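Quick one, probably user error.
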């Protein structure tokens, strides 16, 4: 922070090129969104006391540092924080004390949709406060009329993770509608969605444009989340299959496909590597959006020896991306783009289109559409 935004983006592109550049690889213009007010998901540690809570992070001594006024969040999302602090006071929701391992309320996870609606998740140590939260929900909905989905996530263990496995809905609505590029994605409480919706929209548009040029008859979207890439790549009777470990995310993706009338788009709960190795047949195009650790040796090895013609790789970690590319020498990077998904940090998203060596078609060209946001 403090570095001019243009310099930040230039440094990110230089970093990515240094890791993944190849002879003949065409670089599209980087996607640049707003440098502040972009983050539509807040992961707030709740600390202090019920009478004087802080929402933000912990300092090295374990004390709460309030980030309610952080400029990374858009104004409408920041406006929700004082209301949630007031709820903590009204309902006497005792924050979890990390050092003493006492208290109940660990985190508040707040997501804002492109329409300005909100999902609020209370991460609790147990169900002790559940009835109290339910009793104060009518007040919260009056004070926060944009609230659509509210839930409790249970995280009884003392460990450095944001959420547990069990989710308890407090509202009738179970999903937040994320309308992106004319496509409605259903985000449920435990589903993944990018934190920068404007840049995510550009990411999906670029993948859709590449898929449109290649015109594959079959597509896999591995690590599909709520189905962003899969639904953007759907076209007519093209067979699209999304694979994701999160049951909640898959349920949301299935609902999105059903409401859009996309009968040829299907989603399954499962591990991406296990699915690929056991499928017995490969699609023409694979889209991958793995976690920071990357694809790993098994999936990279399968892609290298498979009949997959093209691969679209979306990565939030260029180091693991470079390692995976090295393990797939038969898949040649043809186009690449850096997307400034996380301004004011050294992190970014990289999107790469790869083609099996010796192939012909749209990906062999050096041209292609580029999108600049902001």
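Nope, works fine. Designed sequence:
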């Amino acid at each position: 922070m403090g570095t001019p935004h243009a310099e930040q983006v230039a440094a990110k592109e230089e970093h990515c090129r240094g890791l993944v550049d190849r002879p003949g690889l065409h670089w599209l213009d980087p996607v640049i969104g707003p440098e502040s007010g972009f983050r539509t998901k807040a992961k707030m540690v709740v600390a202090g006391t019920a009478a004087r809570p802080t929402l933000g992070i912990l300092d090295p001594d374990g004390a709460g540092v309030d980030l309610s006024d952080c400029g990374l969040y858009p104004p409408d999302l920041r406006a929700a924080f004082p209301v949630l602090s007031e709820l903590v006071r009204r309902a006497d929701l005792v924050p979890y004390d990390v050092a003493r391992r006492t208290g109940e309320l660990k985190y508040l996870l707040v997501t804002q949709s492109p329409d300005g609606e909100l999902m609020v998740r209370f991460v609790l140590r147990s169900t002790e406060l559940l009835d109290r939260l339910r009793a104060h929900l009518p007040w919260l909905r009056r004070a926060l009329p944009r609230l659509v989905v509210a839930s409790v996530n249970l995280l009884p263990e003392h460990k450095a993770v944001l959420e547990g496995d069990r989710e308890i809905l407090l509202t009738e609505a179970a999903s937040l509608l994320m309308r992106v590029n004319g496509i409605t994605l259903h985000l449920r409480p435990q589903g993944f969605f990018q934190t920068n919706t404007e840049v995510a929209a550009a990411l999906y548009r670029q993948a859709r444009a590449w898929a449109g040029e290649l015109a594959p008859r079959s597509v896999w979207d591995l690590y599909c989340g709520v189905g962003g890439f899969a639904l953007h790549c759907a076209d007519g009777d093209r067979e699209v299959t999304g694979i994701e470990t999160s049951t909640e995310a898959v349920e949301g993706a299935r609902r999105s496909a059903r409401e859009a009338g996309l009968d040829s788009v299907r989603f399954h709960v499962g591990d991406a590597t296990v699915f690929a190795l056991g499928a017995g047949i490969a699609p023409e195009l694979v889209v991958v959006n793995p976690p920071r650790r990357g694809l790993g040796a098994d999936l990279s090895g399968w892609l290298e020896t498979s009949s997959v013609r093209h691969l679209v790789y979306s990565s939030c970690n260029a180091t693991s991306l470079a390692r995976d590319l090295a393990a797939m020498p038969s898949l040649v990077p043809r186009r690449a783009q850096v997307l400034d998904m996380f301004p004011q940090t050294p992190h970014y998203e990289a999107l790469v289109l790869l083609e099996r060596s010796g192939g012909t078609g749209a990906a062999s060209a050096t041209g292609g559409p580029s999108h600049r946001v902001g």
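The longest helix spans residues 197-214.
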